[in-house]
DNA sequence: CGGCCGACTTCTAGCGCTGTAAATTCACCT
DNA sequence: AGGTGAATTTACAGCGCTAGAAGTCGGCCG
């Protein structure tokens, strides 16, 4: 039943509260018979420690906030899953409080300046709008680790993958497939995000390293980070006469939209146009054709981020540490490994089956540790 | 700065703690000059109330748990988004603590019998494995509302859509499109979930109401709730010689997998096979062809669930209330509205564009309130 | 056989905030 | 001027738990 307090257990067992507390915490210096007697009392009363009371006393809440734009974006929901599992696996067994910023500056401010303090022990934040100065100013003394390639003040820890390198590798892969007109899809129409900026830089580097020209026409922005917007933008570009034989997409949502726009126009993938997405979300394996994608190592990202956060919570107070985690290219049908460069048309059913099965069948891995 | 306590503010302003507390809470009966004086002290010290302290004193944490199988499933991530927005909009401004059960009985038990009590004020749980008896036994006195069509003891509140009715309507729509061999895809290979069970019942009712025979061969189970599993299962069924002209899918993941299996084999959608999914996830608008889907009113679901939960938290102690919220059929290319029954081939670019834009273009709405 | 040591348990302050009840102040009447 | 009730403000006792100080008890050494 509810409302059984430590004191009730103590009385029931005829001992002091501290002894009960010691039993609950498996402290040493409790004799076996005593331990058993107390445990029986706990069981009989159905006692469960009250989290809030404990937390007031210890100053730790066991909660960390995970803040990003929107759980509905597959990358973030997959991240939430990974982080919450990793957090639970932590020694301290953290639980995760989800906060959505909607990708707006107001949302990010709201998350950082919550009017109440002390609810969470620390925060994992993936900022998208806020300047690094503002982040530095606002986070106050809340232990924090930033995720992703967004703004990051030097004073705060951060984990990310090397977006420039990843975009370069992916673009080079398309070039190595023999593509010469590689377009970039999915950056913001206006107000380029940090993410888009870096991926475009990498895209350009990839083109240059393969001796391909950089054409402004081949940058296809979208109105929002959403597959329908991408479908429209790519469709319009095609209809406007823009020609390309490969698409480097800012993210998988853009890639999925692009897939649709190409299908609508009867353009064959990857024969006419190869496509690479970004994030390697679960759907990539079952789009048609299945989607090659830049695959950040989110497990490692979560692990490193939580590790640094735990250190901050424990009082570490050094300068911000910036860590890179690795990524790989998950190669699927939309931009296969170079061996099978152009290859069979994509309706070879049995081949495809095997591919779906293997998930990230071929992959180029890149470890860049810090 | 950190660690400014109520008492510090009180001393700084030369008043009692309670007066400061009153100012913080905008209580009446605080004179204007006093309010201003205290406010200045608060600002000068940069005081922010400590959530844990307050919560210990009030007994409320302002947190509710939202527990379901896996955030990575789009339906759940969309639900999480809706619930957390709705919860924040509540008078009490609840925050949402995410809990994943992995869809296993152990996970569900873990969520229900968290060893610590008092962390959350209440819980929204979408069970999938646990029996209603076990739910009733375990939830103890934690205010709780169940989501979805899973098991629900009579003593606990629950919100769901009428899955049987929805499946019937969707199946009938396929029949009205002239389809006579309508298969059902995506239920579990073994250990049918409550969800699948009800949707299959509705599917059967839909067939019967249109005078179509129910064939066991047309039930295509999958190994897991995942699009790749569905792709494989549908592919195998086709390869085994099973013939159908429409697919009623247990969920959108199954539908997306089915889409892929059909594409691989060069089967035209919706001309050869029409497809209806379930959940109306965001991707449905940009699959190719776009996917018709049963669209539960999740906003309403969240609203009703939170409302009931709030009442439970406030001490309401009646018998379990079971509420239905409405759904509609979001009709897109994979199973269009009956007017355009077979219609143009799906690569009519401009038409399609408009369609993508409109999202759930045509829709049959069903309000079933309780 | 008394005293001292170590092992174990109890005592007792809080952690930061809120709610109730009591105290104070103040404007206004008679 | 004394009294009254309303409006404010203060005092204080916890909410449930933890941790360090203080106490208790049995055993062992001299």
UniProtKB/TrEMBL annotation, chains A, B:
Record region (Disordered): 337-370
Query: In what residue span(s) does the HTH lacI-type domain sit?
Result: 4-58
> Mind telling me which InterPro entries this protein's record contains?
HTH_LacI (IPR000843), LacI/GalR-like_sensor (IPR046335), Lambda_DNA-bd_dom_sf (IPR010982), Peripla_BP_I (IPR028082)
Name the Gene Ontology molecular function terms of this record: DNA-binding transcription factor activity; transcription cis-regulatory region binding
Reading the lineage from the top rank, the first entry is Bacteria
Q: Which SUPFAM superfamilies does the entry mention?
A: lambda repressor-like DNA-binding domains, Periplasmic binding protein-like I
| Low complexity compositional bias, start-end | 357-370
Q: Which SMART domains match?
A: HTH_LACI
Q: What are the entry keywords? A: DNA-binding, Transcription, Transcription regulation
PANTHER family from the UniProt entry? HTH-TYPE TRANSCRIPTIONAL REGULATOR GALS, LACI-RELATED TRANSCRIPTIONAL REPRESSOR
Name of this chain's protein? Transcriptional regulator, LacI family
């Amino acid at each position: 039943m509810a409302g059984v307090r430590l004191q009730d257990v103590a009385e029931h067992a005829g001992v002091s509260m501290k002894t009960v507390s010691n039993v609950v915490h498996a402290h040493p210096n409790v004799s076996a018979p005593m331990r058993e007697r107390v445990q029986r009392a706990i069981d009989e009363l159905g006692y469960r420690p009250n989290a809030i009371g404990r937390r007031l006393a210890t100053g730790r809440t066991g909660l960390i906030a995970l803040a990003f734009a929107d759980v509905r974006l597959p990358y973030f929901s997959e991240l939430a899953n990974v982080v919450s599992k990793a957090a639970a696996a932590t020694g301290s067994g953290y639980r995760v409080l989800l906060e959505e910023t909607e990708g707006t500056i107001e949302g990010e401010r709201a998350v950082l300046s919550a009017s109440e303090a002390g609810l969470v022990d620390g925060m994992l934040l993936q900022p998208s709008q806020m300047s690094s100065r503002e982040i530095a100013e606002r986070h106050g003394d809340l232990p924090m680790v930033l995720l992703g390639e967004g703004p990051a003040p030097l004073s705060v820890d951060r984990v990310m993958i090397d977006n420039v390198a990843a975009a370069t590798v992916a673009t080079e892969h398309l070039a190595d497939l023999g593509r010469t007109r590689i377009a970039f899809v999915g950056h913001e129409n206006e107000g380029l995000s940090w993410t888009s900026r870096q991926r475009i830089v990498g895209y350009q580097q990839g083109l240059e390293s393969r001796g391909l020209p950089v054409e402004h026409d081949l940058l296809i922005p979208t109105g929002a980070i959403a597959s329908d917007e991408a479908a429209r933008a790519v469709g319009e570009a095609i209809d406007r006469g823009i020609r390309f034989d490969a698409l480097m997409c800012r993210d998988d949502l853009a890639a999925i939209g692009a897939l649709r726009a190409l299908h609508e126009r009867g353009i064959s993938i990857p024969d006419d146009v190869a496509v690479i997405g970004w994030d390697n979300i679960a759907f990539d394996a079952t789009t048609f054709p299945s989607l090659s994608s830049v695959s950040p190592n989110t497990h490692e990202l979560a692990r490193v981020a939580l590790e640094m956060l735990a250190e901050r919570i424990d009082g570490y107070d050094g300068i911000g540490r910036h860590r890179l985690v690795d990524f790989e290219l998950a190669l699927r049908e939309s931009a296969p490994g170079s061996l099978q460069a152009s290859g069979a048309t994509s309706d070879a059913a049995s081949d495809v089956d095997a591919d779906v099965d293997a998930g990230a069948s071929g992959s180029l891995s890149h470890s860049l540790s810090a």
